[in-house]
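MOLECULE: protein
FOLLOWS: sequence and fold
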Amino acid sequence: MSRLEGKVALVTGGSRGIGAATAKKLADEGADVAFTYARSPERAAEVARVIEAKGRRALPIAADNRDAAAVEAAVERTVATLGRLDILVNNAGIFVVGPVDKLTVADFDETVAVNVRAAFAASRAAAGHLGDGGRIISIGSNLAVRMPGEGLGLYAMSKAAVVGMSKALARDLGARGITVNVVHPGSTDTEMNPAGGPGAREQIDLMAIPRFGQPEDVAGLVAWIAGPEGRNVTGAEFTIDGGANI
């Protein structure tokens, strides 16, 4: 079933983890997919091969979220190469943690640049191309909603900022039939936070369903929002964390 047949998606940070799973899932649903990556062209090439094996077009784009101009250029390249843009997934991010007296202003600036400014830049650029039925979906974090421990304030602040921005964009763009939503993953088994890594047990102890999520779980939710069933959902937050925040 190709619910996204004829659509074009751009996923930032699409060469690994949740981003790669999302790029592949959108291709499963029928979309052609561009995605950015900051490092590892080999991984990006592998994701592109998987997408193309599904019969969809793939466009890997080297672009670091620290560079807002590169993110904007990725949007323009997607449109120029694949002909249009229907779905933007703001996924790329960094996870800088530590108590406030140990963090630096440079840590703050980098976190905001990657997690917030880049999402704004991509959304701003995409808004000029999205039509009726367009989607902007940002990957937030359940830490933007609830704080279970120490040292997470900088990351949580950046993801909470994405929520505020997304709700405002939902108002700005709703009259054009464009939806804007946020997906909040909890503990998800990725390189950034492996299910067998330090602190995993403490995270599992918070959950109603005591297991780490998989990137494909998040990708499935993103694809649903991007699909026809999500046409009247906007300004919303979807938490997918095994019940850690209940």
